Give the backbone structure.
Amino acid sequence: MSKITLTIRVQAQDFDLQSEIDALTAGRKDIGAVVTFTGLCRDEQGALSALELEHYPGMAEAEMRRIAELAIERFSLLGLTAVHRHGKILPGGNIVLVIAAAPHRQAAFDGASFMMDFLKTSAPFWKKEHGAGGTTGDWVAAKDADDKARDKWR
Amino acid sequence: MSKITLTIRVQAQDFDLQSEIDALTAGRKDIGAVVTFTGLCRDEQGALSALELEHYPGMAEAEMRRIAELAIERFSLLGLTAVHRHGKILPGGNIVLVIAAAPHRQAAFDGASFMMDFLKTSAPFWKKEHGAGGTTGDWVAAKDADDKARDKWR
Amino acid sequence: MTTKLVYFAWVRERIGKPEEEIALPADVVTVRDLLNHLKGLGEEYENALQYPEVIRVAINQEHVEHNEPIAGAREIGIFPPMTGG
Amino acid sequence: MTTKLVYFAWVRERIGKPEEEIALPADVVTVRDLLNHLKGLGEEYENALQYPEVIRVAINQEHVEHNEPIAGAREIGIFPPMTGG
């Protein structure tokens, strides 16, 4: 029986990808493929001073764990890590990290992609834009494309 | 016009994921998604002492660059890094790293997956297994599954 | 007996508080009944819950549909569609 | 005039050298002709190129099919299917 490593965290501070991977793979010889997804704060127009990430404490972690367990089961993953930041995040900064580990590459790619598609639509986080001029902007609207990305896994 | 960062390396030494990502994303605000793939040396049965990676110097880099340029074009990537190690690699050690950066997540996932599927079947690298008892084992056979994974992109 | 309600994002901003304990009438049975009841509590609730079809609800920190009964809920979360990740 | 041949993995091991310069007869026109010609050079070549259909060939470090003409090749690489990644 393979050991399955599941790590879920919601935190204000930044994360370090290599140390998160090391925590998942250290001392193991059964992992052949690790896929990571990092979501960053974009600001192509220079109109943004920061994104503010609000979350539902407790439920955010519980929902991420529920999705992670589905992904582990469906793709026979050996490990899954999901870290979501909250609070103010500057353009270029990290928002979310997902790491999926598996014996082979397709399962690792699918596991990470599935986790992100469901996290986007089900985990209780909300983004608000703060304008470059110090103005408080709008809450980001949910996208139909995200629902479609999720529904392709049915 | 967005700057596109393309990095291709074949090297004996290990790589550090976070610093490779930092090199790709530093100072940019147009990247919203970074997907990485790390391929590791597996040894579930404990029968392996090391994998030995042979490559065709010059052609290996050229072929990786050719595939990377196809991926950048096809998925409108903002950056792509591919690092492949050669020489002896111990079980649990890193073999290959691919990083794809894009404005949104689907392109980053597709870019990294496409790069790996073509790298596996087209880049001139060969794996030989060294047995746990000090025996020199067989060359790893090419897999039909890898050809199929590549052909799904046609 | 009271129920704890927690609000997030623009629902929280429009209602003007992050949470409250309220007593619910006996005829508030489902999530849909709850949203309609809240809409009657004042302009700020009306403004927040104007389009109940877009509002998401969690009972005891699990997503539920609008036809779910709320009996036994310790905590009910009310919020817009999620936009994390 | 000679052509540089480079061998990799089990093709290299069976032929017993990583590279060589050889003079090719005028009737060796395509990659397929080359593989057949090499098979006639001795047991080690016969052993390496026994199943030419699995052998991959690159001219000047680019993959080519077996019907490709070799005229103008500075370097011809001969190797098994790739197994990197």
